[in-house]
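ZP: hey, is the acetyl coenzyme *A complex queued? I don't see it on the tracker
AM: it wasn't, my bad. submitting now with these inputs:
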Amino acid sequence: MGQDTISITDNRSGKTIELPIVKGTTGPPVINVASLYKEFGIFTLDEGFTTTASCQSKITFIDGEKGILLYRGYPIDQLAENSHFLEVAYLLLYGELPTEEQYKDYKYHITHHSMFHEGLKKFYDGFRPDAHPMAIMVGVVGALSAFYHDSTDIHDPKHREISAHRLIAKMPTIAAASFKHSVGQPFVYPDNRLGYVDNFLNMMFSVPSESYGVNPVVKDALDKIFILHADHEQNASTSTVRLAGSSQANPFACISSGITALWGPAHGGANEAVLKMLGEIGKPGDIPKFIERAKDKNDPFRLMGFGHRVYKNYDPRAMILKKSCHKVLEELDVHDPNLDTAMKLEELALKDDYFISKKLYPNVDFYSGIILKAIGIPVNMFTVIFALARTVGWISQWAEMIADEGHFRIGRPRQLYTGADTRSYVPMKDRK
Ligand code: ACO
């Protein structure tokens, strides 16, 4: 039996060709259309990449219809329940869960790369105190390439590994420093005695004049948020990192480009937008008005935290965070009216024909914002937290692409040109 194929006939010429169907481990197979242009002189058009696989990957799998998310084959709920972020980061980067020995060695490297070059601190002074922390992140992470030349040879696997460790290790330090800059407090250095999440919380919230202790419920909730945001296959920011990396740009520059793509409200900026929306809705009694607005084609308003390009079922990450959200609010004794509004909104939207027929369910950002707010993270830091966690996915996807010599080539999409046809230059004096 030969390979499965699909026949395509060009009705203009009557010519038929066979295109190979390629199967992955699971999920829909793909048609390899690489020979279409050679055979028929045509490109494919798929705006928004709704049906186009941009690469082959072994890292993350999503079944949006069933609400399944796997990291290297492991279901996300098992990882959120039993693992912790640093171990998940190892899994994403190296493909397997670490042995005790492997984990000890890797943790040592991550811990000992967490400080950043003192010269980088001067960058922060150049930013206005009211600068959005995502703007600072884009600048500072991009600038890492100016400080760590010794790990930017992308063709050297050791350099790639050191860059990955540096990025995973330094992101919490860079993120916490952008927060400290915005509130006018001194930067807190990383403390090697602390774990990854404790260390981040300490750098965010401790001040020289007071001691700070990490609440284990808060730590657990943040750890889960990090795990759930660590990777999500070929989303907009990951595709941006891959595309930037395909030109052989250095990893720090590539991750910085991922941060810019993540920033928008249709992607990572949605958690910030959810809280703004809940505040705007105000009281649960006003929800129907906003639901009607979301359904109105002539109104640009959308329910933030609802809908997903891939999930056409409950986002499995939202399910995990919903539980975590209740635990945190109870532990911290926070009575957040936004949560009441969120619960009512979810209940009403899930009963509404518009949302049912379009398969619009709450996504991960619907609950993450409420948790982050409760633990004292300011709203403009929400997307930064996302970027911190997603750095693991970005760098794992980048490293996979570079190491895959058989498929690694510059990404260069084609287009359907709809502009003016060839025309002659008209001197200014003759233009109408
Ligand atoms: N509220 C109201 N209607 C919606 C919503 C929403 N949140 N999301 C989608 N729709 C409607 C659209 O109007 C469209 O209706 P139509 O078919 O009648 O034109 C239909 O559902 C499909 O929507 P698209 O925008 O075509 O879906 P797409 O896959 O391109 O967009 C997206 C997905 C961007 C996430 C969208 O659902 C959205 O804007 N959601 C709100 C923002 C959000 O929460 N983003 C976070 C995503 S998760 C993440 O990045 C971690």
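AM: back. The chain has a mean pLDDT of 94.
ZP: great, adding it to the tracker
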